[in-house]
Design a protein that fits this description.
alpha/beta; Enolase-like, domain 1; 2 domains; globular; disordered N terminus; seven-stranded parallel beta sheet; TIM Barrel; about 375 residues
């Protein structure tokens, strides 16, 4: 926990935004579409007393995951959140999320601001983000997320590759027409593999027979099978399955979490820092979900190294039951903007580095290499 004597107030001098595009190692395809590069907005927060904090606002392009895009998030940052931040006076990084609740802006934009404030706070206090958040694990179990491919053979090749690298569980994306065959093939080849599936809201209750068959495959969970707000339908589906349902897109806020709990529409929650509006809100989500008896784990969009590193520190908190979706940098990107790159060991763990903040350094040379637009705001 944060020391009572530790300096908590930050005076923000300027905010710089860097819109970057980093190519993916290979296109990532889910039921909603496919992307070949990661477009993200890096938030650079310069303070009066020296430390620079970095955050990341990291929606997916187009309608790949939600209605939020880099363009809409950039507008929210420049027209709403940054003016609010620069006019706020000395800021307590632990509490600023409360004032952002009054600002009509994307949770992705709020996550970028919140992450930059937490990082500046940790840099100023010369402690790790892990310590500020109240975490304790120094190594984080990592699982791999695998997209949709044209053939089952391609999928099996990726499963073989990533399990040989040490990832501690495998998640495969499914969609109507790509579900039973790939899952059956993976399970037949890997009968003991910790395996889960993610539908990204691609199904309805009319597909219940598909889920009954998936229920026979000894899966860890079925993630977001139905639409975001289909809480009653998900509750009915869960009553018909022994495999736990996991809420992802449905778990977008504390209010949404209450609906999940009331309807008993999931047994597991995937907490994505970006989706819920930042580290501060994510901590509240974790506490509320655990208090309601739900299991939790940390998801990813995926983000570049800035937000991924902060997500790893969040995953160090007590209360997470499953490996995170945060993976090695080289799993996703031809390059990353942090040094050292995020890596997993042979046993599938990511080790938090020593040092203040996240322990990872943002490379300005790489940020400049991949920047497509930037803007600076001062008091």
């Amino acid at each position: 926990m944060t020391s009572p004597s530790m300096k908590q107030l930050i005076s923000v001098k300027s905010i710089s935004l860097h819109r970057v595009r980093v190519p993916l190692v290979e296109p990532f395809r889910i039921s909603n579409g496919s992307v070949a590069e990661k477009e993200s907005i890096l938030v650079e927060n310069a303070t009066d007393d020296g430390p620079v904090g970095w955050g990341e606002a990291s929606p997916m392009s187009g309608s790949f995951y939600s209605s939020d895009t880099p363009t809409t998030v950039w507008e929210d940052l420049t027209t709403r959140l940054i003016p609010h931040l620069l006019n706020a006076g000395p800021i307590d990084a632990n509490q600023f999320y409360k004032t952002m609740r009054d600002v009509s802006a994307s949770p992705f934009a709020k996550a970028g601001i919140d992450g930059a404030l937490w990082d500046a706070f940790a840099q100023s206090a010369r402690v790790s983000l892990n310590q500020l958040l109240g975490g304790f694990h120094k190594r984080i179990a990592s699982g791999v997320a695998i997209g949709i491919y044209d053939t089952v053979d391609e999928l099996l090749e990726r499963v073989a590759r990533f399990t040989s690298e040490g990832y501690r569980r495998v998640k495969i994306k499914i969609e109507p027409g790509w579900d039973l065959e790939p899952v059956n093939a993976v399970r037949a080849r890997y009968p003991q593999l910790p395996l889960m599936v993610d539908a990204n809201a691609a199904y309805s209750l009319d597909d219940i027979e598909i889920f009954r068959k998936l229920d026979q495959q000894n899966l860890m969970m079925i993630e977001q099978p139905l639409a975001r707000e289909a809480h009653e339908e998900a509750s009915e589906l869960q009553r018909n399955l022994s495999t736990p349902l996991c809420a992802d897109e449905s778990a977008e806020s504390l209010e949404a979490l209450r609906a999940i709990v009331e309807n008993k529409s999931a047994r597991i929650i995937n907490i994505k820092v970006q989706r819920v509006g930042g580290l501060s809100e994510a901590k509240l989500m974790l506490h509320a979900a655990r208090s309601a008896g739900l299991d939790c784990w940390v998801g990813t969009m995926p983000e570049l190294g800035v937000a991924s590193a902060q997500g790893l520190h969040f995953a160090s908190l007590e209360g997470f039951s499953y490996p995170t979706d945060i993976e090695a940098s080289r799993r996703w990107f031809v390059d990353d903007v942090v040094e050292p790159a995020i890596e997993i060991d042979a046993e599938g763990y990511i080790h938090l580095p020593q040092g203040p903040g996240s322990g990872y350094r943002v490379s300005r040379e790489k940020v400049e290499r991949y920047t497509v637009s930037s803007e600076k705001f001062q008091k």
